[in-house]
């Protein structure tokens, strides 16, 4: 699958994303086609090669000086009636615009239909949004990952009687999407806005995931922004290539309770031959010598409630010859803060160690076996397309044994009798 990774090096805006697409090989006529489809008069677009911190890139220059301004509804209507664009492009562009309008409405305490746009009412908002969405489609991108958004220094009003950076609408867009942001860096001082509402809306609407994907790189596009600070480049990078691991390679059951079949799941086309590889996992650890067993048990429960994949205790010996416990937890990297807080809140420890890890996980699925005692779920482990082990679900066996007033072993034996018929 053709994959794109949007790396917010020094901010994000609509024109920076356009520049990155053009720098990656998108013909400028593709953007002009989008402008023509929107029927926006008096718009000129060009591209210029510029550098930021000695790095070359492309800057998209959209001139809307003599173009009309738009209300939110007029923008939505322009997209809806742009029949020369694909249905997918129109639907995605509409979602981006609605994300902007919803954020502006919340910031100003009004209905989206009644908001008054300022610079966002310019025609270049339409050009940026539709141009980026259309451009990605023209390049054949099927999946988009993104880095955390770089917002810049969170001080200093943008204008008299205004709010500090980031703009309120930008923050609302990011919060509504539950998207990650990068930490502020000292070199961001006195630079001002780095991520615009349009840039935030495009990335948060388009991104399937916020992480660098495993991919074979084909092209890199560098989009140049309008700022030129001496300490960092005001650019955004677009990585284009082919995914080398399936985006669906997590073998755990889906939230709907259904499990995938390792022999027929298309995710296996890109997975390692014997197992799935997961690289977005963290290990949290802490040494504890002053907690009761009850405290440790409760902390384990709370870690699982916070989203931990596994939690365990290991007996260790600490200074002063004290017996102690090493508390360990595995979890998704995006839950690092929540898991660390759970450990600090529910144990007496003063610190938590965190490190990223990779792991191989065997393919697995769950099927249902019909027995004389009712349905029992059976968990199967696969390696290289073959079943290597299987085990009945303990809770199902226990419930059936209790319902039929028999033993656990009797139900398990009944399951074994039915296994051959379903393999």
Short account of what is shown:
The protein has 423 residues and is of the alpha+beta class.
Structure description:
With 423 residues, the protein is an alpha+beta fold. The protein has three domains: 2-243, no CATH class; 276-360, Transcriptional regulatory protein pf0864 domain like (Alpha-Beta Plaits), CATH 3.30.70.1380; 363-422, no CATH class. Helix content is 32%, strand content 27%. It has helices at 14-23, 28-38, 72-80, 87-108, 123-138, 168-176, 197-206, 293-305, 336-346, 394-403, 408-422; strands at 2-7, 44-52, 55-63, 143-146, 215-224, 235-243, 276-288, 310-318, 322-332, 353-361, 363-371, 374-383, 386-392. The strands form four sheets. The protein has a four-stranded mixed sheet. A four-stranded antiparallel sheet has the order 8-9-7-10, covered by helices on one side. It has a three-stranded antiparallel sheet with strand order 11-12-13. Helix 4 packs across helix 6. The model is unreliable at 246-272 (pLDDT under 50).
Q: What is the percent of helical residues?
A: 25-40%
The major β-sheet equals: 4 strands, mixed
- Low-confidence parts: 246-272
Rg, nearest Å:
27 Å
Silhouette: globular
State the helix count: 11
Number of domains: 3
Derived from helix and strand composition plus strand pairing, the structural class reads alpha+beta
Overall mean confidence score, pLDDT: 86
How do the strands and helices of this protein lay out in sequence?
Layout: E1 2-7, H1 14-23, H2 28-38, E2 44-52, E3 55-63, H3 72-80, H4 87-108, H5 123-138, E4 143-146, H6 168-176, H7 197-206, E5 215-224, E6 235-243, E7 276-288, H8 293-305, E8 310-318, E9 322-332, H9 336-346, E10 353-361, E11 363-371, E12 374-383, E13 386-392, H10 394-403, H11 408-422
Parallel strand pairs: 1-4
Antiparallel strand pairs: 1-6, 2-3, 5-6, 7-9, 7-10, 8-9, 11-12, 12-13
